[in-house]
Amino acid sequence: MSTSLQTLAQLVGGIVGGGIRVVDLTVPLEPATPVIQLPPPFANSKAFALQEISRYDERGPAWYWNNIECGEHTGTHFDAPIHWVTGKDYANNATHNIPVDRFIGPACVIDVAAKAKADPDFLLTREVVEEWESRHGRIPAHAWVLIRTDWSQRKGAAAYLNAGADGSHTPGFDPKCVPFLAKERDILGVGVETVGTDAGQAYRFDPTFPCHTIMHGSNKFGLASLTNLDQLPPVGAVVFAPPLKIVNGSGSPLRVLALVPA
């Protein structure tokens, strides 16, 4: 048996035998799932809706199925480079043509939950990342950088979106941290527990919405509305995050899974 076949066999054996645990990083997708709310005059995405087609009845006696309706960026979702104006000119920048190996990578989990609890506007700085690296090693290329804030544990849309008269107050990235991750660490992308990859007050930053502007402008990705990051170690997990293969899609809901040593 070749080395690659042995590796795959060991992976399957680990999952079946319990040596490797599969952690679901995805929130349930339902009408109550919070969706980002943009102020006028900007257009907003639709909330998730499920419409029954038949359920073992006269409409279809032996089958149950539904139509679904939602925006691409609903619930746990993927942001492709084409989602932002800065990433619109890259080749293979949409959900249908991104090379599939770029959906899988090692996870670096940076735990700032205590800081986000104390300050909902907490921003991850380059210095915090470098301090994490001093303890866990340099972030490798082709990695997913996941920011644990425990924000997904907030109950209800109001608490989760945490909006005031001046917009949402949710944690995110300091503008100087994003180019450091995208260019000096060459990551696949970032993942967050909030409704979007930028901080709630990022419309005030320079540049505005730096995570979207710089990350997608560097042909990188975003994962939003993750959960269960408290179940991942700082290093050692592998994340699978393939979006739906929507032609020219700017993103999509997805099921994000992590493989974790038991």
Structure in words:
- The protein has helices spanning 3-17, 113-118, 126-136, 157-161, 177-184, 210-217, and strands spanning 20-24, 49-57, 60-69, 77-79, 104-111, 123-124, 144-148, 163-164, 167-168, 172-173, 189-191, 221-224, 237-240, 251-253, 257-261.
- By secondary structure, it is an alpha/beta fold.
- The chain is globular.
- The strands form four sheets. A nine-stranded mixed sheet has the order 1-15-13-5-7-11-12-4-14. A two-stranded antiparallel sheet has the order 2-3.
Quote the beta fraction. Answer: 25-35%
Q: What is the β-strand count? A: 15
State the shape: globular
Oligomeric status: single chain
Mean pLDDT across every amino acid position: 97
Low-confidence stretches: none
Question: Helix and strand string, N-terminal first?
Answer: HEEEEEHEHEHEEEHEHEEEE
Strand order of the largest sheet: 1-15-13-5-7-11-12-4-14
Number of helices: 6
* Largest pleated sheet: 9 strands, mixed
- Using only C-alpha atoms, the radius of gyration works out to 19 Å
